[in-house]
Amino acid sequence: MEQSAKGYVSSDGRAYVVPDVQPNLEHIATMNHGDVQGVPARVEWVDPRQARPKQRALFFALVNDIHQWSGEPSEWLKEYFYTLYTVKTAGKEISLADDTVNTVTDAKELIDEVVDFIFEYDVPVKQGYVLLPRDENQFQFECIKHRKCLICGKHADIHHLELNNGNAVGMGMDRTKVDHSKKLLVALCRSHHEICHSYGTKGFCEKYKLTNLGIKVDAETLKRIGVKGNYETKNSKSYQNNQ
User: Fold this and answer.
1) Does residue 49 contact residue 104 with C-beta atoms inside 8 Å?
2) If we measure between CA atoms, which residue out of 199, 203, 213 comes closest to residue 133?
3) Could you tell me the pTM of the whole model?
4) Which residue ranges in the chain fall short of pLDDT 50?
5) What span, in angstroms and rounded, lies between the C-alpha atoms of 71 and 78?
């Protein structure tokens, strides 16, 4: 059950959401064992600004990269991803023309579909390389999932960021005995990993113009994407993923 709403912040700093239309409380109660209090909900903070020129440039650059790789016409690919977006959003249309009425959030959802496609089929990125959204958590997760270097796209290992002393897994330590879900993770090739060690996290971010580096990934997701580690579970003290 989805519906539009607006978010506000009260004078004491607490955030709250007001639906645009009064929800059907009877329906909500049936989903929450008869109770309309404390109903689990998902909130998405929408950026209502018009889709940015940079997003348009990235979308068409990536579409052209897919064209160069696949041979499919760019116009066909554009319509394919527009249609995929419409299906995923239950009928919502999108266009990144100069006069678009779509928002920054709409464009991000569309670009996420293109990026997913590129990772899934290992499409070489050339024209869109410099525009890739490396600061965004979703892109960093895709790099971790597919073992692609965040900076150059080459094969990568998953590393812990050294934000605090003792946060990194040292040389010779068995990574299968570490709970990676408690660390900030980033996918880097050997060369960029060495640069990160040499410059430090702050210097590395400055060098590659990053404002956000490293994400946390929950244990279940790490196990699902094949990251070996020693993960705590509800039924036992730990679970070693050796798949």
Assistant:
1) yes
2) 213
3) 0.70
4) 164-172, 234-243
5) 13
Measured at the CA of 72, the angle between CA 67 and CA 77, to 5 degrees, comes to 75
Q: What's 148's DSSP letter?
A: B
Listed residue (65, 64, 81) closest to 124, CA to CA: 65
- Sign of the Cα pseudo-torsion (147, 151, 153, 156, in order): negative
DSSP characters over 167-234: -SPPTT--GGGS-GGGS-EEEE-HHHHHHHHHHHHHHHHHHTT-S---B---HHHHHHTT---EE--S
* CA–CA dist 229, 21 (Å, integer): 46
Coil, helix or strand at residue 59: helix
Cβ-in-10-Å burial (0-12, 13-18, 19+) of 66 comes to: buried
Q: What is the pLDDT of residue 12?
A: 86
Token digits for 62?
Answer: 């990536």
Question: What are the structure tokens assigned to 182, written together?
Answer: 């408690």
CB 156 within 8 A of CB 150: yes
Report the C-alpha gap between 85 and 51 in whole angstroms.
15
